């Protein structure tokens, strides 16, 4: 039986890195840890994982926020299931958990974006998890 629990320590964050790195392939472990620490401290970022026994099979990072666009909401920053455990509903379990977390903490919506090359994610979010597509997220990298 799977369980979901929050990852709060550097040791737990390190344990999640091999799975998170399947999504965030551009990050090395040191940068990942620095970013999780900064986001946790500055942005109220939460990292949760699904475990099958002692094995971490999926991980999500999200943060609560309030914007004029969506009001009080939870932004799903990261969501990934270990490659060998995909299509077994672990991502669905995490999204349902986030929805419940949002309701329990007074947030009225859950938002996320998915990169255009992840076509299978579109089907998952819109058909299986009943998210509506409400726009696109645009990004511009500013060189220092």
For CATH, the homologous superfamily is named as: Gcn5-related N-acetyltransferase (GNAT)
Oligomer: single chain
Record field, number of beta strands: 5
- What is the string of SSEs from the N terminus onward? EHHEEEHEH
Structural class given helices, strands, pairing?
alpha+beta
Sheet with most strands: strand arrangement: 1-2-3-4-5
- The overall pLDDT average reads 90
Total helical elements: 4
β-strand percent reads 25-35%
CATH architecture: 3-Layer(aba) Sandwich
Major sheet summary line: 5 strands, mixed
Regions with pLDDT < 50 over 5+ consecutive residues?
none
From the alpha carbons, calculate the radius of gyration and give it in angstroms: 15 Å
**Fraction of residues in helix:** 25-40%
Distance from first to last alpha carbon: 48 Å
Quick rundown:
With 144 residues, the chain is an alpha+beta fold. It has helices at residues 10-20, 29-43, 90-104, 119-128; strands spanning 2-6, 46-52, 55-67, 71-81, 109-112.
Give a verbal description of the structure.
- The protein has one domain: Aminopeptidase (3-Layer(aba) Sandwich), CATH 3.40.630.
- Helix content is 35%, strand content 28%.
- The N and C termini lie far apart (48 Å).
- The protein is globular and about 35 Å long.
- Helix 1 (10-20) packs across helix 2.
- By secondary structure, it is of the alpha+beta class.
- The model has no long low-confidence stretch (mean pLDDT 90).
- It has a 5-stranded mixed beta sheet with strand order 1-2-3-4-5, with helices on both faces.
- It has 4 helices and 5 strands.
- The chain has helices at 10-20, 29-43, 90-104, 119-128; strands at residues 2-6, 46-52, 55-67, 71-81, 109-112.
- This is Acetyltransferase (GNAT) domain-containing protein.
- GO terms for molecular function: acyltransferase activity, transferring groups other than amino-acyl groups.
- It comes from Sporolactobacillus nakayamae.
- It holds the Pfam family Acetyltransf_1.
- Residues 2-144 form the N-acetyltransferase domain.
């Amino acid at each position: 039986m799977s369980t979901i629990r929050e990852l709060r320590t550097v040791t737990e964050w390190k344990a999640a890195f091999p799975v998170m790195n399947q999504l965030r392939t551009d990050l090395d472990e040191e940068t990942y840890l620095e970013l999780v620490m900064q986001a946790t401290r500055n942005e109220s970022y939460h990292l949760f994982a699904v475990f099958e026994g002692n094995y971490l099979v999926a991980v999500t990072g999200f943060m609560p926020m309030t914007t004029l666009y969506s009001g009080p909401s939870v932004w799903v920053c990261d969501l990934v299931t270990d490659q060998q455990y995909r299509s077994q509903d672990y991502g669905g379990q995490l999204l349902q958990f986030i929805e419940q977390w949002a309701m329990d903490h007074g947030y009225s919506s859950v938002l996320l974006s998915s990169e255009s090359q992840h076509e299978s994610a579109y089907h998952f979010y819109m058909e299986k998890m009943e998210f509506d597509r409400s726009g696109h997220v645009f990004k511009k990298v500013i060189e220092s």
